[in-house]
Specification:
heterodimer; A: mainly alpha; two-stranded antiparallel sheet; 2 strands; 72% helix; 1% strand; B: alpha+beta; Alpha-Beta Plaits; 6 strands
Chain lengths: 411, 113
């Protein structure tokens, strides 16, 4: 964020989403494109004007003033149309012609963004499109960035966003918080989208490290937005934030050079972000109120344990139980694999090997890596066979190299 | 894949007097075993953690007795539902159940859908 270009981009990302939320709230969600147009024009004017006159002292205030003027212009033009043109056509409808005032107070921005978040995460839109819309409208990402994040192209993303906005219109989705008794259910979907957004960044296949980091930080920001609001500041919201903080704390340690992933065991702990770890602990503590244990709780607790590198019996037993519980809430092959690894650490190689053999995840190269590790020193020939299968199934060169290394070390 | 109910019976399910540490070890055994089935993606329902000690039995003629357990050797302690291709596979899944270590049994019953 140090370079002026970065700060301008940052300003854009921050303010674009706030302004679109506030203006959409005023116009109604069916005119979201109008709001986007007004804000885009504002930024266009900003770049042109700032290039000549320099960046104003308070760029944010500058943007708000211009956006207000442009909104006013829109209403005036609309008024002329309604008062002068429509009567000529004999189509004039009775309408409230009061020109409303745009309110860019911190409170209204926050409220509008939360309402926008709930509106976008409506079940009528497919989740992939929800993430796209969230990236565009709430995080201020450009179409190209979204395309890169999804490993797609601009046309596809444009079409997808267009259809999603159509859906908002036709389904008459309102920018408002759901009723009190519905908020908990709807919040589940909102949290899920934030979780997916974070995963998109954290497990992203894009080579663009800045983009991946931005995705994660935006997901974290949306989570914090929910935590700042009493009705959505529930234990599971806090658990999700804790989970994101713990994972994000290892960001700098996971990457070396351009695109080499550093495995957990080999990470330099000094690169872990202690502030984020502490922030995570704070939210984890907040998350333990109430009776519900969500998958975010369990995942956050597991991620918490991974903030300590030392292997203790207590640590791995606890992790194993957390994975046991997580499997009961939602099974996935990767949870099954991680659970078996924890079983190995807690209960030993033999027991884990027997369990691993039952999993039969035959298309998953991580499965064969795990089997290879578990056969090591028990049956090195079988260990080798499993590593070789993993090698064949692995998709990236980095992974293949890592597996070859394991084969070589077997001798 | 069909659903099968695994019913756990043991001579005693009264853990009230068990020292906390032993209770933890026992709980871990059960959780690891159920976790192993869940890891294979074959757990349908975890059922209740444990059925409580008290209960009533109603018989014809309005006869109500306390506890169904007095005349039988093994008490029904809990159950889970798993999915498997056939009864044999479901029976294989039941192996390693901690109820067996406690002198109990697992009854495997296909669920009629």
């Amino acid at each position: 964020m140090e370079k002026p270009n970065d700060s301008l981009k940052y300003l854009f990302q921050q303010e674009f989403s706030k302004m679109v939320a506030v203006i959409s709230k005023l116009f109604g969600l069916e005119h979201i494109e109008l709001a986007e147009d007004i804000v885009s024009e504002t930024f266009l004017l900003a770049t042109e004007s700032w290039k000549v006159k320099g960046i104003p002292k308070n760029p944010t205030a500058w943007l708000y003033v211009v956006a207000k003027q442009k909104t006013l212009q829109y209403f005036r033009r609309n008024k002329i149309f309604e008062e002068k043109v429509l009567p000529e056509l004999g189509l004039r409808q009775e309408k409230d012609n009061e020109i409303p005032e745009l309110n860019f107070s911190a409170q209204n921005i926050r409220d509008s963004q939360i309402q926008m978040l709930f509106a976008i995460c409506t079940p009528v839109i497919a989740s992939e499109a929800q993430i796209g819309l969230a990236l565009r409208i709430l995080c201020g990402f450009g179409i190209e960035e979204i395309a890169e994040a999804f490993l797609s192209n601009k046309e596809t993303i444009n079409k997808r966003l267009f259809r999603a906005k159509e859906k908002l219109r036709t389904e008459k989705v309102q920018m408002e918080l759901p009723a009190k008794n519905e908020i908990v259910n709807r919040l589940d979907n909102v949290l899920h989208i934030i979780y997916l957004l974070f995963s998109e960044g954290y497990y992203s296949k894009t080579q663009n490290q800045i983009l991946r980091k931005d995705l994660c930080l935006e997901a974290l920001r949306l989570g914090l937005l929910l935590a700042a609001y009493e009705k959505t500041n529930l234990p599971k919201t806090n658990a999700l934030i804790a989970l994101m903080c713990f994972h994000a704390s290892r960001f700098n340690a996971r990457q070396s050079g351009e695109n080499t992933m550093v495995l957990y065991e080999q990470q330099n702990e000094e690169l872990w972000d202690n502030d984020l770890i502490n922030q995570g602990i704070h939210f984890l503590n907040n998350s333990v109120q109430g009776n519900e244990i969500s998958s975010y709780h369990l995942e956050a607790k597991i991620a918490y344990w991974h903030c300590f590198k030392e292997d203790t019996q207590e640590k791995w037993e606890d992790i194993l139980q957390l994975y046991n519980e997580l499997l009961l809430i939602n099974y996935s092959p990767s949870v099954a694999l991680n659970r078996t690894f924890a079983l190995y650490k807690a209960n030993g190689q033999q027991e884990a090997l027997a369990e691993a053999e039952k999993l039969k995840l035959v298309n998953n190269h991580f499965y064969f890596i795990l089997l290879g590790e578990l056969y090591k020193n028990i049956d090195n020939q079988k260990a080798k066979c499993n590593f070789q299968t993993a090698y064949k199934l692995a998709k990236t060169l980095t992974e293949k190299e890592e597996i070859q290394h394991k084969i070589d070390r077997l001798g | 894949m069909k659903d099968f109910m695994l019913l756990f019976r043991q001579p005693s399910y009264n853990y009230d007097t068990l020292p906390q540490q032993e209770m933890q070890i026992l709980t871990k055994k059960w959780q690891d075993w159920v976790g192993g089935i869940a890891a294979q993606g074959k757990l349908v329902s975890n059922g209740p953690q444990r059925l409580t000690q008290e209960g009533k039995v109603l018989r014809a003629g309005g006869i109500i007795t306390d506890g169904p357990f007095v005349e039988i050797r093994e008490r029904l302690g809990s159950f889970i539902v798993v999915k498997a291709d056939n009864l044999d596979e479901a029976t294989t899944l039941a192996h390693g159940c901690p109820a067996l270590d406690a002198g109990g049994s697992v009854e495997i019953r296909p669920v009629f859908i």
